[in-house]
Specification:
It contains eleven helices and two strands; from the N terminus they run αααββαααααααα. Strands 1-2 form a two-stranded antiparallel sheet. A hairpin with a 3-residue loop joins β1 and β2. α6 packs antiparallel against α7, α6 runs antiparallel to α10 and α7 packs antiparallel against α8. The longest helix has 22 residues. The radius of gyration is 20 Å and the shape is elongated. The termini are far apart. 29% of the residues are buried.
Length: 217
Amino acid sequence: MARRTGLIDTAVDALRSRIASGEWPVGARIPPEPALVTLLGVGRNTVREAVQSLVHAGLLERRQGSGTYVLSASELAVTMSRQIADARQRDVVEVRRALEMEAARLAAHRRTATDVGELLQHRDARAEAYRAGDLDRMVATDLALHRTIVRTAGNPVLRSLYDNLLDAIGENIRFNFVTDAHGHDSHDGLVEAIVAGDEQRAVAETSGYLSALIAER
C-alpha cells in the first residue's frame, strides 16, 4: 500500500510540475490517459488517481466527452480565489495598491532594455484594445502590462503573491473598465516613469490611479 501511495504521489508531482512550468498552460487540455501512462511510466489506476487528486485540488477539470483541462497553475491561487471570492472591489484595490506601488518602484530601479521594450509593447496593445472597444482584450492587455511590471521588479516573492491573486485582479480590472474608471492612456505616465528609471514618479503614478479608484467606491 505504501508503494502504491508513493507512486501516486510521484505521478501527482510530475503532473503538477508540467502545469506549474507552463508546459500545460491554463485552458489547455492535458494528454489523454493512455499518453499519461506512457509519459509517467505508471499504470492506468495510478494515473486516474493522480489526475483525480489534482481535480480535487482545483488545478484540473474533467469535461464530459472532451477531456481534462488545466484550470489553474497553482493550488495557492485556487485557495486564494476561494478565500476572497466575496471580497469587495475596494478591498482588492487596496491590496493591489500595496503590491503594485512597490512593484513599480522596483521596476523603475531594475528595468533592462528588454523590459523597456516589453512594457512599451504592452502599453501600445492596451491602448489599441481600448480604442477598439474590445473588453476582453482590454482586460487581457491591462493585466499583461501589470504582470510585466511585477516581473520587471525582480522580486520572486512579490511576483508569486501577485500571480496567486490574478483572478481577483483580473476581475477588478474588468470592473474598472466596465465602469469606465480607466482610460486608454491611464497607465502611460507609469510606463514612462519606469522607462526613465524614476522610482518616485512610478510610485506616485501607481498610487494616483489606484487611490482614485478607492475614492470612487
